[in-house]
């Protein structure tokens, strides 16, 4: 399936249509079938395709309609009745696809789509999306000297986070405190990864933007991390966190302890049904 257009509307005669709009806040008076993409950039061509477009231009939007990723079915025509399956939304930044928070207006309410922050096989995400900060609360030690921001990079296997011996640090998804995610829309977040050592790594939802200058007694405010889950062995290949009880905005943070490399293959938020 492939539908391409700019400022796109798709649909059958006399039926409902799908309209794709951008912006940092969702439209106040949407029509049924409107898809809102949270972005501060312009929207280019919009692709409803199974696989990512081969030659995208800057700011193009890819809305995945592959059956294995479907999170919503949007009615697009009443005569005959037709539904458009949609999974997740990305925007091309000139080098790779950025996962975008997105929603569709259905049955008079906004419904979130799956949010894919990183996926090595789909070309979504890069180390350029990450900002590194000091240790998260669970990696506290007695001295600030034991906390150090990890090194961020990428490989053929995914996004890499590297830490040195006897240091603890955190990578936070986003480049500023404006890069929030509305966790009210999601049930869970899961990270699939590989690592090189039997040590701790932790997936967290942060309610505050981690600022090293705000550290007190080697930690952030106690309310900074609403939910977290850790794993202590290299045999563990995924970590998940329950988001269902979280309301409001926050950030995804990944903690790393001691000399090792974590390679993130997938980082995905699944929406409320």
Describe the structure.
This protein is mainly β and 273 residues long. The protein contains no helices and 24 strands. The chain has strands spanning 2-6, 9-11, 17-23, 34-38, 45-49, 61-64, 72-78, 81-86, 89-92, 97-99, 102-106, 109-112, 115-119, 130-133, 151-155, 158-163, 168-173, 181-182, 186-195, 201-206, 225-231, 238-242, 249-257, 260-271. Strands 13, 15, 16, 19, 22 and 24 form a six-stranded antiparallel sheet that branches. It is elongated.
Second CATH tier, the architecture of the largest domain: Sandwich
CATH topology assignment of the largest domain: Jelly Rolls
Count of all domains: 2
Q: What is the tally of helical segments?
A: 0
Order of helices and strands: EEEEEEEEEEEEEEEEEEEEEEEE
Sheet of most strands: 6 strands, antiparallel
- Give the overall form: elongated
Give the fraction of residues assigned to helices: under 10%
Structural class: mainly beta
Low-pLDDT segments: 4-16, 139-143, 217-223
CATH top level class name of the largest domain: Mainly Beta
> Quick check: average pLDDT?
81
Determine the strand fraction and express it as a percent band. over 45%
For the terminal residues, how far apart are their CA atoms?
Answer: 24 Å
Number of strands: 24
What Rg do the Cα atoms give?
A: 20 Å
């Amino acid at each position: 399936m492939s539908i391409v257009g700019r400022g796109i509307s798709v649909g059958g005669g006399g039926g409902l249509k799908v309209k794709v709009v951008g912006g940092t806040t969702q439209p106040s008076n949407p029509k049924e079938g409107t898809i809102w993409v949270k972005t501060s950039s312009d929207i280019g061509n919009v692709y409803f395709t199974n696989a990512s477009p081969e030659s995208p231009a800057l700011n193009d939007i890819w809305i995945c309609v592959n059956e294995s990723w479907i999170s919503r079915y949007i009615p697009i025509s009443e005569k005959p009745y037709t539904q458009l399956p949609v999974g997740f939304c990305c925007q091309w930044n000139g080098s790779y696809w950025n996962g975008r928070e997105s929603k569709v207006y259905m049955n008079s309410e906004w419904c979130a789509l799956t949010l894919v922050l990183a996926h090595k096989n789909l070309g979504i995400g890069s180390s350029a999306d990450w900002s590194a900060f000091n240790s998260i609360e669970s990696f506290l030690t007695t001295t600030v000297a034991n906390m150090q921001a990890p090194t961020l990079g990428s490989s053929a296997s995914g996004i890499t986070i590297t830490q040195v011996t006897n240091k603890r640090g955190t990578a936070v998804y986003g480049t500023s405190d404006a890069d929030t995610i509305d966790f009210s829309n999601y049930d869970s977040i899961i990270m699939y990864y590989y690592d090189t050592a039997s040590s701790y790594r932790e997936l967290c939802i942060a309610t505050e933007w981690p600022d090293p200058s705000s550290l007190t007694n080697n930690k952030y405010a106690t309310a900074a991390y609403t939910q977290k889950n850790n794993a202590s062995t290299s045999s563990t290949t995924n970590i998940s966190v329950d988001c269902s009880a979280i309301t409001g905005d926050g950030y995804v943070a990944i903690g790393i302890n001691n000399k090792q490399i974590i390679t993130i293959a997938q980082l995905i938020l699944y929406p409320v049904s």
